[in-house]
Structures are given as C-alpha cells and as structure tokens.
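Re: the multi-chain job from yesterday

Posting the exact lines I submitted so nobody has to dig through the queue logs.
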Amino acid sequence: MEGVKFWRKPLDWEMIQVTRGRVHIFEDRCKGCGYCIAYCPRDVLSFTDRFNRKGYHVPSALKEEECVNCHFCEIICPDFAIYSEEIPQPKEIEL
Amino acid sequence: MKSVHPYDELLRTDRIPHIWCPGCGIGTAFSSMLAAIKESALPLEDFAVVSGIGCTGRVAGYLKLDSFHTTHGRALPFATGLKLGNPRLNVVTFSGDGDLFAIGGNHFIHAARRNIDLAVFCVNNFNYGMTGGQVAPTTPYGAKTATTPMGNDEWPFNLPLLAYAVGAVYVARWTTLHVRRLTDAIREVFDRRGFRFIEILAPCPTAYGRRNRMKAPLDVLKYFEARVRVRHDADPAEAQIDLESPIVVGKFVDRKRPTFLDLWSKRYAPDEDEEVHVA
Ligand code: SF4
Ligand code: SF4
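And the result, structure tokens for all chains:
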C-alpha cells in the first residue's frame, strides 16, 4: 500500500494476524443449554444473572475481546440464538 | 442496530423459536445443514428438502426452501418421486431414526439399493422422542426408555453397516458435537451423486438423556466427547453402538456406482441431455 513503510516486516506477519470476532446473542431465542459456553475455544461466554423472558439462563460475552470469529457457537447452538462476525482489522500499521 | 442471524435467510423466522427442547440436537444438526447449504453456494431454488414425521420431521416446516413434510416413514418415496420427476433438483431427506428406519425402514433399503440420487441425513437420538421416549430400533442394548424401564433387550441397528450393505455410495457418522466435521461432510455430500447417507448422533435430553443418567443437555455432549473415536475408513461393521464400547465416527464409505437415473437413461434416452444424468 502507498504511504506505508515498514522498518522491518516480521517473517510471520501473515500468520500472526489473529482474526477478531464479535458475538451477537438473541436472548429471546436462547434456551439456556450452555453448549456455546462449554465449547467456545476461547471461553468468551459465561452465564451471569441474566435470564430471558421465558426464564432461560442466557449467555453473556464476558470476555468479548477474546473472540476469534470461529463460528463454533453459531453452528452448535440448536436455537439460532448466537452468531459471530469478523471485526475488520487494519492489515498494516503506519509507522 | 438490529442484527440478523446469518441463517435467518434460510429460516421461516415467524416460526422461530422452534418447538425443540433445550439442548435438543436436532437444532444443531439443522444448523449444520444450513451452514453447509450457505457454504456450498449451490442455487437455493434447486434444493428440495423432504422430511417425515417426528421431532426431526419438523425441519421441513422451519426451512425457507422448497420443503415437504410427508407422512410417517414415507420421506424417501416422496424424495424418490421428486428426483425422478425433476432430475435437476438437489433432493435432500432430513428425518429421524424412527421415521427412516422403523416405519420407513423398507423404503430406505430400496432407495439405497436402487441408488437413487438423494442426500439422506438421519438424526439418531436413540428413541421416539416426540411420543414420549419409547424404545426404537436404534436404542442401544441395555438403555432405558419409557417402554423399557429395566433396560432394552433388543439389539439396535448399526445404521452405517446397513446403509453400506444395501448400496449407499457415501456413508458417514458424526455427532452434533462435531459440528465442523459434520458441516464439511454435508457439503461433501452435496458434491457427490447417488444415495448418500450421514447418521447424526444427537442428544434428546428430555426423553432419552433423562432416563440414562444424562439429564442436562451438556451431559450428552460430554458423553459423546468421552466416548467417540474418529476413525475414517473404519469397517462399518465396527460401528455398532452399545453402552460400553467407544462410538466410532468418521467417513466409512465413499464410492461410485451408477444411479438409477444413469441406468434408466442409458436404456431409454441415450441421446438426451447427458449432463443431468452423467457424473
Ligand atoms: S465465534 Fe468462536 S471464539 Fe467467538 S464466541 Fe463463538 S465460539 Fe467463542
Ligand atoms: S447454545 Fe444457543 S441456546 Fe444454548 S445457551 Fe448458547 S445461545 Fe443459548
């Protein structure tokens, strides 16, 4: 990219780019099974004192910044109640 | 900002939340199929999804694609008719173990024998969930159900072995804990032709888990986690499920065999539009 200069580009520059994600939770659809909490590889989600209108214990993204947008919670959730999306990251750093 | 779930475009959202119990694996199996459909980028108008009766049968009612909710056990005859009537369709059958292997067992045998070009996904939750958790042809020996409170004294079907023996060209088994592999397998199945079968082991915490010391939904997934062994190309004869041995999952069979339509058109319409029928 024009105007971007690296003093030194790390050899593993491409590899260490960790995708960052953000989870969205539809509390009204959730039935509190806890699958997303138990199997999120980054322990992003936890139960708190939040319950939905039907009385189901819903997850909260307490460690939101840990999410790597792997979509695991999105697919394992039996209720279409959670999904993740990528937070676009700047590819290069201006020095 | 109001966000939209990425699968909503494939769902009749006015019917969501669905009726399945908390932690029911049918929802996860369904969501894997939706993920695979989205990833496959196949034209949505070519999909036709057929299900029979039972908890899993309700998938047809939640899906915003052409879908049929057929009579009990008859998903495969309907699907066969659809495929033969319009060979361009990508016909999928998504149903439960009771529907496909108890009342519908004979249809399964013959659809696979004829090698009808169908993708068949069977959610196996080891019992008849909808009617209160009665013993099914897939209930493991010794397992407790509403009608076998002291333990089941029948041997269950080994579904991958059955599918292989009657001619399925693709046979795999995954659980709803293996959502990645399951989604990849479903996508792979969409790329194959012929009678393709995936058994999806799924929790039914309410009717089956509760009677077998797995009351919470997570207990069933933890049980899968502890018991499952991934063994691709394993002999389907080793895929028998019981309460003691490891549960073998993986892709067991991936072979080629001319479909019924291939053979039929070779005889009766040798000059017709080859693309439809030829691999
Ligand atoms: S997308 Fe992956 S990392 Fe992010 S919350 Fe879901 S399971 Fe955890
Ligand atoms: S997996 Fe889905 S239904 Fe279960 S607790 Fe998480 S968001 Fe709720």
